[in-house]
Amino acid sequence: MSLTLIVLLPFIGAVLPAIMIRAGRNACATATGSVTLLALILLMAKAPAVIAGEVFQVSYNWLPELGLNVTFFLDGLGLLFATLILGIGLLIIIYARFYLSKDDPMGRFYVFLLLFQGAMVGIVLSDNILLLLIFWELTSLSSFLLIGYWKHLPAGRQGARMALAVTGAGGLAMIAGMLILGDIVGSYDLTVILQNADLIQASPMYLPALILILLGCFTKSAQFPFHFWLPHAMAAPTPVSAYLHSATMVKAGIFLMARMWPVLSGTPEWFYIVATAGLVTMVLGAWIAIFKHDLKGLLAFSTVSHLGLVTMLLGFGTPMAAVAGVFHIINHATFKAALFMTAGIIDHETGTRDIRRFGGLLNLMPIAGTIGIITAASMAGVIPFNGFISKEMMLEEAWHTMWLDQNWVLPLLATVGALFSVAYSFRFIFHVWLGKPRDENLPHHPHDPPFGMWAPPALLTILVVLIGLFPATIAGPLVAATAGAVTGGELPEYHLSLWHGLTPALGMSVIALIGGSLLLMRHGGLMSATANLSRPDAKAMFDCGIAKAVALSRLVSDNLHNGSLQRYLAIMVIGAIGIGLSGFYAKPDFQSGTRELLEVSPPAAIGWLLLMVTCVASVFLHHNRLLTLLLVGVIGLIVSLGFIYLSAPDLALTQISVEVVTVILMLLALNILPKETPKESLPGRKMRDGIVSIAAGLGVGGAIWAIMTRDLPNSISSYHLANSKIEGGGTNVVNVILVDFRGFDTFGEIIVLGIAALSIFALVETVTKGDAARRLADWVVERRRSPNRHPMMMVVATRVMLPLSLMVGVYIFLRGHNEPGGGFIAGLVVSVALIMQYMASGFGWAQNRMKVNYHGMIGLGVIAAAITGASAWVAGLPFLTSGFTHVHLPIVGEFELASAMGFDLGVFLTVVGAVMLALAKLSQIERMAEHVDINAEPMDHDPSAPVATPEKEA
């Protein structure tokens, strides 16, 4: 249970900052930090057992049929990353309290931070790859919100979009790769997948799965050629950069490569793809960082380089390379988070991040300067800091690794990458903290920040020093547990120590230190020499790609989505005909089935004859819109009678209710449209439409004939008929299917219905404002309205019918579980009764008396359905499993009480809210188009009062 709490606490606690911000900034930060601290305490309580080799696991059934279960497990790898996420997250929360200004909405920042934190913890503790993918996408969305937190800055919005586009695209590729992996193994449980390395690597789908998964990892961890998004994400506030780009988001891809190491590594494909990408990223990122003048830009490309270093080590595929990679993950998180926070301190206290304006800041900011110099020296790999040890281990592994049968390529390029790393790290030290000031007129007078701002990076700096001096004592057990979880086997004997003797790696390290120092000394000349060199601009390439994609989508939409409903319908119909014909020709011996059909009785023959006549009449009379609408209603009525004839009363009730609502909707629209449709100008157009219609009719008729003359194999109907009463507690099989057997489908449908209604409301609401409102004000209705806008007979009839209709609706709702009816039909009946008040007495009169929040009714309906479904979890049953019992009351007698009634109530509320929200809004637009004031006063006194004409007013 505590393992689940570690994941859920950040999500649950995300509501606290939004609430506590009213109590002050300190209270908001304290509440946020308490959530993270509690999760960290729960994690640390399990740390000793995990380091000793124990693995904790917890599992809850969610959608077992789909292989998706809520399953978490904690091993050494998960412990390391969860500790970094929560530990550094706690320091960032403290730091952000002092970094953010009073104008920055702190509550919103902490909400986004906790959502991101929960998603990251979910990734590293998930034991189900489908669940991992959900958390993976949540990190992309929440990081988008964090990077774009300063939404008033164009650079922030651009960086957020770029990060989301790149990591989102990689996430889509990774989803496909994970599904392939699960299909190979036959399970989506991560612990099962990790035990089937031989099966996966022997599969012909190994390489596609590998490439797709690595695309997700490379885009998330900013590996070449997807490295360009990370520097542009530096437009985010420094606390975001320090968190996302040191220990969390950019490490997600590293984590997944480490997690999948036992089953994906050890092949030439893994080695050349992963190691090469990491090597190129390490060298390229370090080279670019040398020339960056922005402090955060330099640190961003240094992050790209160090992520490449870890990726390269994982690509080597050896246990010692995994040990080195794990150790550098720890070291990089400590010094890089501290460096980002130091850069934020400089920006905060000086008002700029331009390195060319700095120099000698150590004298003015001694505390921040000490932190910055120590952590930058660790980033350069200077003894005795922790970065030196992991750099030595990296160089040692590169020395012993062949690339394309050459033993000099990797050592040389690894040394070059280390040399560049020394150059940009020393630039951070000498050009910022040491030397003489280059600009005496900085925007702010530099000074050390308050304690709460320098304490978090100072704590990390202490770790940098202690791990460097005592690596085996402080980091050794965690490194061993993590590396063991990565490799999935025994580790070779190794020693974490500051001094390993005179080794080739030490010589390579000395060369890097000397070469990096010399390169920095020639930095000015190097800048001049490379200033005029043409280099690809990743941002320009990305913007160009987006522009091309937009142009292509516009071209496609202009040809397919051009506003012609005829074209949409023709494409769909022709597509359906094509699919049907392909199935027909796939089986040339197609013949009619042997199933006997019902005899055609006289009522049935009359009904089908009327249906055909009405359909043909609607084709020839379609120019008269009102008459066509009446014919459509007649067609719906005949279909309803057909359902009754075929013993489907539920379908008949639904069809009739939908027809009434549809007719009312069309009447509202027709009231402000011309009486007749425009004439077709081209005879060829009529012929084309006729051919498509006839082909569609023949195709649908043939498909129905083929289905109805055959017995369906393994039909589920018999199961529903046999178990409707036993398992669902109802004799109305249709209703039991909707609220029990297929309740999850119904739940999704009412959510879609609510979203559709809200979308209609939003779209129609725009008509009442701006240019659309002005055009509506100039709208000229073709016909004059009746002088009696609210006929007395209609007003009285609808008001008398209202209570009767409501009573019928309640009756249909209550009987639905055992007799024809249910929440959907009852909702439509009540909606029709209510909307008739709008039509009969006017929008203002009805709105003034029906003070119902239809938005809230939709939400209440969805929540009621969700709570009913979730209540089954209390009994340990799947979502939406219904229960029922029989209750005996005096006078009333015995009756059945089913939990499905709560779900049906949710359906009822959602249907009423959705239909009323849409129709009432359309009714308002109609009144506006007719230039009738929408207010209740004239209708309150005499709803049937005639409209005053200009002549009478004169």
Features:
954 residues; mainly alpha; two-stranded antiparallel ribbon; 4 strands; 3% strand; disordered C terminus
Please summarize what this structure is.
The protein is mostly helical and about 950 residues long.
Indicate the radius of gyration in whole angstroms.
35 Å
Mean pLDDT: 85
Could you estimate the helical fraction of the residues in percent?
over 70%
Beta-strand content: under 5%
Shape: elongated
Note the topology.
Elements: H1 2-13, H2 15-20, H3 25-51, E1 56-63, E2 68-74, H4 76-99, H5 106-125, H6 129-147, H7 154-185, H8 190-193, H9 197-202, H10 206-220, H11 229-232, H12 238-244, H13 249-259, H14 261-264, H15 268-290, H16 295-316, H17 319-350, H18 361-364, H19 366-380, H20 386-399, H21 409-430, H22 451-469, H23 471-474, H24 476-487, H25 504-521, H26 523-531, H27 538-560, H28 565-586, H29 602-620, H30 625-645, H31 649-670, H32 683-708, H33 717-728, H34 733-741, H35 743-767, H36 770-777, H37 792-815, H38 823-841, H39 843-849, H40 854-874, E3 884-889, E4 893-898, H41 900-929, H42 937-941, H43 950-953
Antiparallel strand pairs: 1-2, 3-4
Task: Describe the protein.
The protein has 954 residues and is mostly helical. Among the domains are: 265-489 and 503-523, no CATH class; 607-678; 731-947, no CATH class. The chain contains 43 helices and four strands. The strands form two sheets. A two-stranded antiparallel ribbon has the order 1-2. The chain has a two-stranded antiparallel ribbon with strand order 3-4. The longest helix is centred in the first third of the chain and has 32 residues, at 154-185. It is elongated and about 105 Å long. 43% of the residues are buried.
